Known about the structure:
The chain is mostly helical. The protein contains eleven helices and no strands.
Amino acid sequence: xxxxxxxxxxxxxxxxxxxxxxxxxxxxxxxxxxxxxxxxxxxxxxxxxxxxxxxxxxxxxxxxxxxxxxxxxxxxxxxxxxxxxxxxxxxxxxxxxxxxxxxxxxxxxxxxxxxxxxxxxxxxxxxxxxxxxxxxxxxxxxxxxxxxxxxxxxxxxxxxxxxxxxxxxxxxxxxxxxxxxxxxxxxxxxxxxxxxxxxxxxxxxxxxxxxxxxxxxxxxxxxxxxxxxxxxxxxxxxxxxxxxxxxxxxxxxxxxxxxxxxxxxxxxxxxxxxxxxxxxxxxxxxxxxxxxxxxxxxxxxxxxxxxxxxxxxxxxxxxxxxxxxxxx
Length: 328
């Protein structure tokens, strides 16, 4: 007969060496399973549509859209990673120490890349709004492609350095079988906090504050029918489309920061942020949910995305020369 203690273990046959499952009502567990599974599938599907749209249609091959493509790729993999988070709902990890470490490693890479991409988006909008006459020469498709590739590579190398001890010996910090944790030393943790949160957020806020000031000045100029406005950035002409794009991407960045801040606030206060801890489950899921929100924002603000989705869903994308369809 199986005892109550055995049923509470991740691996009942291992008895004392196994981790214990957290006690949670069955209805609550099933609700979380269904909710997270739906969000994960929706996140992967929506971001896959963004990836296909920007990659396939030639009209969408612009510097700004390449940055959105990089963000969509990151968000797509976040959607896939959420299925591993679902595994941890019961507080037990059944995929082994190596997979646990790789899961964290990929998760950290995606986080760093997303933050880096947000900084690049802020720089792109800053140049477009504050220095519009130099935008076409300073911001090119090849240049942005190179920057996004460097962002991914540097993120992988950086996190490999941060997680070196965990990668060398997966599971070295687990206290029982069925646990999935990693430990980063205090100094590396502070450096990581500055490089992936405090520094980038400061850059993003400063650049977008400047963009906001210039956008307001341009809006007043257009209302007053003034052709030339002498402001600090020496902006002569700013296209309405650029202002609209800045506003839309501003919404993306604000939502990103709102979803990101709770996670790093826990880190700043020194609280435990292990993925199998119930106290951190909400903030981690909130950060993951941001990856689902980005395509929804595009749907509301970008007509080209709605039209491209229609072309993809109706399978018109399979027709010859479909990449040349007028999407804009």
